[in-house]
Design goal:
The protein has 3 helices and 10 strands. By secondary structure, it is α+β, with helices and mostly antiparallel strands.
């Protein structure tokens, strides 16, 4: 008598949890600001992976165990597109740093569940920013557990080297070289301003050269 062997069911790891990345423009702006500036910060390191709103599956065979941090940084994994972050396919390296931007609908229960998840699966640094109240909460792994950081104003991330400044009406983040995290619009304004300054400098140089020629002096012969 032969026994029928049922084929093993394929485990599906969805690439979306059906939830929107952000609930309002303010939350979206902060998610993009942090994620994009972190990408720029590590653009020359091929072994730093940065993602936003990407589902992270820490345990093979358990697709229900998952989270999608607003932004996360993984040291030791190559850059590149992914539909999700399946840790067992990534040398079992967990994201070391995660960011969450609060929205009006976030509940204490939800945030506690996120903290428990990140604590359980090895996150080293966890930052939570509420743009409505300008409150930044940080936790840093010590003695195998995520422990609260007592003073976030001026705190420098051990992993990222970035500094948090809460002295103004909203959070400012500074890269290790002292440059502030900027939005796309601010970067464009800076570029346009630099182009305008360069054009004005060129115009002044041409005007000076014209005056020198009027005096019989060839500006090309001047050192």
């Amino acid at each position: 008598m032969s026994v029928a062997i049922r084929p093993q069911r394929e485990i599906v790891y969805p690439e979306s949890d059906g939830q929107p990345m952000a609930e309002n423009t303010q939350q979206f702006r902060w998610i993009v600001l942090i994620k994009e500036n972190l990408e720029t910060l590590f653009q020359h390191d091929p072994q730093v992976f940065v993602a936003g709103d990407l589902l992270w599956y820490p345990v093979q065979g358990e697709p229900e165990i998952r989270r999608a941090p607003d932004a996360m940084v993984v040291f030791g994994r190559p850059k590149g597109d992914r539909g999700s972050y399946r840790q067992w396919e990534e040398d079992d390296i967990a994201p070391q740093v995660v960011f969450e931007i609060l929205s009006p609908s976030n509940t204490l229960t939800e945030m506690f569940e996120k903290l428990t998840f990140y604590d359980t699966y090895g996150v080293e640094e966890y930052y939570i920013y509420d743009p409505e109240t300008n409150e930044l909460t940080g936790l840093h792994r010590q003695a195998e557990r995520l422990q609260p950081i007592m003073e976030m104003d001026g705190w420098i991330s051990p992993r990222l080297g970035i500094r948090f400044d809460l002295s103004g009406p909203e959070l400012q983040i500074f890269a290790p070289d002292g440059e502030r995290f900027l939005s796309h619009q601010e970067l464009r304004q800076q570029r346009e301003q630099a182009q305008q300054q360069a054009a004005e400098a060129q115009q002044r140089a041409e005007q000076l050269a014209a005056r020198l020629r009027a005096l019989g002096i060839d500006p090309d012969t001047l050192v």
